[in-house]
Amino acid sequence: MTEGSKRARAGTAAGPLSRRGFLTAGAAGVAGVSLSACSDGTGQDDVPATHSPIASPTGLEDADWADIRARFILEPGTAYMNNASLGMPPASVAAAVGAGYEALSREPLHGKHDLGEVIATRVVPGLAAFLGADPEEIVLTRNASEALHMGAVGVHLEPGDEVLITSQEHPAGRRPWEYRAARHGVKVNTVFIPSPFESEEQVTGLVESALTPATRAIAFCHVTRGGHLYPVRSLCALARERRIVSHVDGAQAVGMFPVDLHDLGCDTYCASLHKWMLGPMGTGFLYLRADARDRVRSAFAPEDTTDTPAYHPPGTSPLPTRAALAASLDFMEAVGIANVAARTRHLSDQLKSRLASLSGVTLLSGPTPATSCPGSTIFELEGVDAIAAVPLVEERAKIHIDEHQRDGHNAIRISTHVYNTTAEIDRVVETLQSLSA
Ligand SMILES: Cc1ncc(COP(=O)(O)O)c(C=O)c1O
Questions:
Q1: Which of 145, 146, 285, 404 best tests ligand 1's pocket when mutated (most atoms within 8 Å of CB)?
Q2: Whether residue 344 is found in the same domain as residue 313
Q3: Of 307, 335, 363, at which residue does a domain stop?
Q4: Ligand 1: nearest atom to the Cα of 85
Q5: Looking at the 3D structure of the chain, how many domains does it have?
Q6: Distance CA 315, CA 119 (A)
Q7: Residues 201 and 240 placed together within one structural domain of the fold
């Protein structure tokens, strides 16, 4: 066992969790343990990851974020820059998952009840408030894919009706409509969106010109896998004007910057909570706007009505994992989502400016903050195969990155969250330089 995982185990075994303790402390409170800090391996920033209250950072520099960084238990010496694939939960979230399972093992009946109560009274209302929605509009799922499928299957469509998606959708956003085409005779049209694109108006114009009188739904990302930021508000307004259902994939948005669902005006919104939100793996949600219930129905219960909607997937659900979302919410609320957005933007701006000094780099992220998200950066490196680069960078520098060989690119994707540092950015750029040398 490595030193880091030994410490993590010691932390999660921080003492028995009484039923009352779980309820009063909540999922985050059970994580009152001391874990090793996220470190660069030099030993210089090994600050104990205590669970003292988090003070929201006042600046953008690494020093301002040292206490936040200390809340993570990444193996010393490793740098994680692949949040767009899977987020790295802080120690408090890992401990809350463990505590939830412990509660079930100690007393399954009461444990189940108590975890359910945490979800009903803290997680769902907390998530709704965090996202500018009402609790009744939130359905917890295992991931974004499940939510995207539930929303798409629920849209009332007749054979011959059309759905418009964009060329940059994740398979999780595309496949539910292909399913509807195969099973229900729906026609799926795809509008090409360039990567990168020039402006919000360009995307709205392209989508508008691809609508037909038979279009009944449009489905698109908030942020694409390549980090391009679609103009969601304008696209939803366009859909509303034409009485078309808007179905948004927010897997790459929630937890990276503020998202206000009522303000965006979408009918459905689907996201993972195990990416930028730093929640436990296997968490996500479907948002269904209350007044869209007549057009998007339950995927499970044919007898549902708008007054008695039945959107929740039936059966046993992973209560400990879901209850631990309270710890992710606590973390995000303490840090402040606007601070998260500013810090991730600060780090990706630094990455972009370092990359600009390398020869053979073509930056593919959008040209302005209105077209590129704060956290993910894509670029090509002349003479370097992006898929081959991923394991090489890990081998040479213990840095986890990803590739983006899609949308016509041979790109590398680096997705940085609040705990990354300038030193890590320097290290990844130096390593990339060594690959292209
Ligand atoms: C844009 C987008 N949508 C959907 C998904 C699927 O997310 P999940 O694995 O949570 O289902 C991903 C995952 O990378 C994604 O990037």
A1: 145
A2: no
A3: 335
A4: 14
A5: 3
A6: 16
A7: yes
The CATH number given to whatever domain includes residue 169 is 3.40.640.10
The rounded Å distance from CA 171 to ligand 1 centre is: 8
CA 165, CA 173: separation in Å to the nearest integer? 8
372 lines ligand 1 (CB under 6 A): no
Residue 128 lies in a domain: no
Give the range of the structural domain holding residue 382, as residue numbers without chain letter. Answer: 338-436
Under the banding of pLDDT at 50, 70 and 90, the label for residue 348 is: very high
Q: For residue 256, is it within any domain?
A: yes
Cα-to-centroid distance, 374 and ligand 1 (Å): 17
Residues 95 and 12 placed together within one structural domain of the fold: yes
Q: How far is CA 132 from CA 263, 336, 428, in A?
A: 8, 15, 36
Q: What is the pLDDT of residues 48-100, one digit of tens each?
A: 454 689 999 999 999 999 999 999 999 999 999 999 999 999 999 999 999 99
Calpha distance 108→285 (Å, rounded): 25
Pair 357, 300 in one domain: no
SS3 179: helix
Which atom number of ligand 1 is nearest to the Cα of residue 272? 10
The amino acid at 331: F
> Phi and psi dihedrals of 198, rounded to 5?
-85, -40
Look up the CATH number of the domain holding residue 399.
3.90.1150.10
Neighbours of 237 (CB within 10 A): 15
User: Do 294 and 151 fall within a single domain?
Assistant: yes
Please report, as a single letter, which amino acid is at residue 297.
R
Give yes or no for a contact between 296 and 267, defined as CB atoms under 8 angstroms apart. yes
* 338 vs 332: CA distance, rounded Å: 10
Q: What is the pTM of this model?
A: 0.91
Do 242 and 167 share a domain, yes or no? yes
The residue among 335, 363, 394 that closes a domain is 335
pLDDT of residue 13: 31
Which of 73, 74, 71, 98 minimizes the C-alpha distance to 15?
98
Q: Are residues 150 and 184 in the same domain?
A: yes
Mean pLDDT of 309-318: 92
Q: How far is the centre of ligand 1, averaged over its atoms, from the C-alpha of 47 (Å)?
A: 33
Angle between helical axes of 108-118 and 91-106 (0-180°, round to 10): 140
**Ligand 1 pocket: which of 248, 275, 406 to mutate (most atoms <8 Å of CB)?**
275
Structure tokens at 367: 């040209």
Same domain, 292 and 254: yes
Radius of gyration of the chain (CA): 22
